[in-house]
Amino acid sequence: MNKLLSIIAVLIFFQPVWAQSQERVLWSLEDCINYGLKNSLSLEQAQLAEEHADISLRQAQHQRFPNLSASSSLSYSVGRSIDPTTNDFISTDFISNGVSLSSGVTLFDGLRLSNNIKKSKLDRKASVEDTRQWQRDVAMNIATVYMSILFATENLENAQNQMRGTQDQLDKMNKLIVAGARPGSDKYDIEAQLALDEQNIVRLQNDLEKAYLDLKNVIRYKENSEIRVSVPNIEGLELTDPEQWKMEELYISSMNHQPSILAGEIRYKSAKYDESIAKGSYYPSLRIGGSVSTNYSDQAREITDYNTVLSNQTVYLDNNPVVIGFETDVPIFGNIPYLNQMNDNFGFGAGLQLSIPIYSNYQNKANVSRAKLNTKNVELSNELDKQQLKSSINMALSNAKAAKKQLAAARKSVEAFQIAFGNAEKRYELGQIGSYEYLDLKNRLDNAKTTLLIARYDFIFSLKVIDFYIGLPLNF
Q1: Which long-range CB contacts under 8 A does 428-434 form with residues at least 24 apart?
Q2: Which residues span the domain enclosing 178?
Q3: pTM of the model
Q4: Chain segment 229-247, per-residue pLDDT in tens
């Protein structure tokens, strides 16, 4: 028993360390997107709109069912009033209570109920597509920040490699100076370059930290918690040839995979049902209803018993008065119990209501005209969205092709500068060129490497933009 308690105590003691070890060390793009989608406020708003559409749909469906309502009243009357149980005028203060239950259902209303249900179903589908679009937009924003981190990370590594190269050259120069092969002044330019390299590293470190802060903000990650992304293998992406893509094929694919376009098409169909709903006002409507009611009054009375009373009456016999006694039954009245009154006063009524529109002060026609204008407006918005999508895809394809060419040119430039710098490095060590020419070639090589890095990530990002439009998952 003591051993078991000891084991439990050790587990509790080391639980925080164990929990920390379970935290994700390196985040992939998919990890970041999943976390961001889970915590996105904009996506939560889209989901609330989806729930709102659900409520509207259920409400439209329930309009087909009969309604049911109950009511009750309690009143105190003073002076001359009508007793609701007898409909007689009385001049006595009294308390009365009425209870009723009513129901009604629409039999025909120009198909407005049916069309409203169909419209609500389409609105529900459109809201689902809106949510999907928000998901893709959030994922694209996260991917953009993720790519900026990858670029900043590799750019920092390049700068650190450049500084190590400068430091190596400074160490060689110091050895030559000690050996008497070079004057001491030759190291000053290299030391100045080393200082510039250090400044550049500090700047790039700040850029990297800022990129990580942007990632935390976009996925709503804990500000004080550490997060680091994994570096994917993107070498294969550079082999992609955007020249093989056809603009028309990309556009057709994006039309089928962009939720915003699908939502627009659904809303157009919904707008057509709005027209049908508005036109339904031109038709007669028929409704059936019924109600049951009963009431109570504290003045209601009923005969509970009889009293026999002897009544004297004088009659004349031969002109002589004679008193004769008659027995008379006099009723005794008592209050009618509440439940008895409710049962005795129970009533039922039912009826049909037919409403025929004749003239509505231009209201019905105006509603139809507005519905048609709204349909036209939705149609135009859809066309604008399609044109914008086509323009965006065309721009993305052009950017991808241009980025591919820039990447090839930047790679050739780096190769050429590497050869030139290699020769310059040998000549510099032999004392054939000065430090100014040597550092100039080194800086030009470093700039060419940075340009290559920028071109590389520009090309990769342009590929991800294409993936976004044609509906491919944003991952590596």
Answers
A1: 429/172, 429/176, 431/181, 431/182
A2: 24-64+110-283+379-476
A3: 0.77
A4: 888 777 767 777 888 888 8
